[in-house]
Backbone:
């Protein structure tokens, strides 16, 4: 498993382009989570892919080429904090319920819904923690499960810092070129006007 972080412009179509890119590279995505950042114009993606380091490097390099991607980095070998969240609906009758409650407590989960024949458990933490709870609940009958997918952040002073505004590197360079072009055109017009005979 390889974990990549991508900062992208928060606009329609970006998620589709990223997932299509992974498909073209024949890389299977285990989970892809996306959400807003402290800058409402920028979204952050956490991509967990079934590939090796070489495949992750190809994906990272290809992501950087997309105009909507502001930053892409493979953080698999860095010190990171990872979290996943799951909702698990498990069969629970009057006899099994007390034992289930003890198991849920051990994994620091919490019951968020109670029905006569089932419970819904909410648990967050590492992928291994959630997988562990899932395994001990299976004998009771896991009826349904939903997981958010992994989110990750590098620890301490290891910061991932995208440009402050969407495209402030890629798009700003394009804007700079356009401004320079406009100035050149204006200078030519002024020069030609200066050389024209007076009226």
Residues:
């Amino acid at each position: 498993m390889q974990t990549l972080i991508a900062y992208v412009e928060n606009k329609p179509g970006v998620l589709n382009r990223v997932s299509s890119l992974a498909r073209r590279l024949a890389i299977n995505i285990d989970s892809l989570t996306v959400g807003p950042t402290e800058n409402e114009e920028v979204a952050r993606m956490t991509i967990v892919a079934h590939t090796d380091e070489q495949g992750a490097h190809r994906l990272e390099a290809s992501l950087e080429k997309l105009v909507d991607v502001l930053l892409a980095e493979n953080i698999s070998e860095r010190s990171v904090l990872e979290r996943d969240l799951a909702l698990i609906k498990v069969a629970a009758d009057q006899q099994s319920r007390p034992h289930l409650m003890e198991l849920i407590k051990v994994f620091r989960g919490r019951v968020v819904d109670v029905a006569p024949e089932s419970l819904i458990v909410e648990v967050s933490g590492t992928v291994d923690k959630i997988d562990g709870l899932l395994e001990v609940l299976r004998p009771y009958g896991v009826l349904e499960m939903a997981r958010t997918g992994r989110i990750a952040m590098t620890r301490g002073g290891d910061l991932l810092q995208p440009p402050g505004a969407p495209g402030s590197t890629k798009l700003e360079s394009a804007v700079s070129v356009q401004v320079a072009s406009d100035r050149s055109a204006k200078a030519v017009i002024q020069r030609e006007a200066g050389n024209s005979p007076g009226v």
Q: What stands out?
A: The first strand starts at residue 2 and ends at 9. The two ends are 75 Å apart (CA to CA).
